[in-house]
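haha ok so turns out i had the wrong file open the whole time. this is the CORRECT one, sorry everyone. sequence first:
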Amino acid sequence: MALAPSASARGVSVERGCSAPAAGRAACMALVVSGSPHLSAAASGPAGYHPADLISAYKLTATKGTGQTVAIIDAFDNPKAEADLAVYRSTFGLPACTTANKCFRKVNQSGAAK
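then structure:
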């Protein structure tokens, strides 16, 4: 099921990554984006998803996600996840998101601190 008609017009497909949850279960908000290796209309910067792409894909409000939690599922762990996030945020001039400032939290499949 396509979720973003405007994206489809650009040759990009955005679909749900999983089915609706059973009653009382956590909801999966994952989106699968296909059709373009670089969605941003930005004239400069690295290839990949720019903050504006994520704001658009997740239909964030004017707060641009302030106070929202974004979960990234990574099979088999990524010991450099926090460092990779630091590079991304620095590249786009975003404030730090670290374990120390309680913005970044890494958990295992059971939700326990990693």
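The CA atoms of residues 86 and 96 lie 7 Å apart.
again sry for the mixup
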